[in-house]
Amino acid sequence: MARIAGIDLPKNKRVVIALTYICGIGKTSAQKICAEAKVDENIRVNKLSDEQVKAIRTIIQTVFKVEGALKAETNMNIKRLMDISSYRGYRHRRGLPCHGQRTKTNARTRKGRKRLISSKK
Fold it and tell me: Are residues 14 and 42 in contact, defined by beta-carbon separation less than 8 angstroms?
C-alpha cells in the first residue's frame, strides 16, 4: 500500500484514479504527475516499485499544494473576505450562497432546514 501526502492510496485501483483520492489532485493533475514521474497510468498501485512511489511523492511535495496546506489556504481566503467585509465575505458569514444563486425558493443546502414560523391566533 502506497502512502502519499498522508493518504493511503487504494491498492487495486489504477495510479491515475488512486491519486485523485488526495485532496487537491484531480484527474488532469494525476495524469501530469504520472507523465513527469515516468509511471504508466494503467499500472495498479500495488504493482508500483518503491522508486516510482518516491518519484510521485517528490513531485507532489514540490509542485502541488495538497491536503492540510490547501485547506488552510482556502479557509484563510474565506476569513480574509469576511474580515474586509466584502459582499462575498458577508454571504459567507450569514451562511448564504456567494455566487448569485436565488435564495427565495432554493439554497436549502446553504441555509439549512426550513424553519416554520407559527401563526398567531
Answer: yes
Bridge partner residues of 44 (DSSP): 14
- State the pLDDT at residue 121: 63
Sorted by sequence, the CB contacts under 8 Å of residue 117 that are 6+ apart come out as none
pTM over cut 0.70: yes
Q: Where are the domains of the chain?
A: 3-64, 68-111
CB atoms within 10 A of CB 2: 19
The CATH code that applies to domain 68-111 is 4.10.910.10
Q: Over 90: is that where the pLDDT of 89 sits?
A: yes
Fold of 3-64: Helicase, Ruva Protein; domain 3 (1.10.8)
Distance separating alpha carbons of residues 95 and 40, to the nearest angstrom:
44
Please identify which residue in the block is written with the cell numbers 495498479.
44
